[in-house]
Design a protein that fits this description.
Blueprint (H helix, E strand, L loop, with lengths): L7 H21 L4 H24 L1
Helix pairs in contact: 1-2
Length: 57
């Protein structure tokens, strides 16, 4: 895996961590306003990671 700043390894690790956090949110938080906000923030960060990868190409 390439862990340089523009490498795909860092993106894979970041998306993996965000995926684990999303699963933990789904399992531990009660449905409601805070869970929705957390999902929104995790989606925003995943979007930024993907956008940064596209920009580095």
């Amino acid at each position: 895996m390439d862990f340089t700043p523009a490498g795909s390894g860092r993106m894979a690790v970041a998306l993996g961590v965000l995926g684990v956090l999303a699963i933990l949110v789904w399992q531990t938080m009660e449905p409601g306003k805070y869970r929705s906000l957390t999902w929104l923030l995790l989606g925003f960060f995943a979007f930024r990671v993907a956008l940064g990868r596209l920009r580095s190409r």
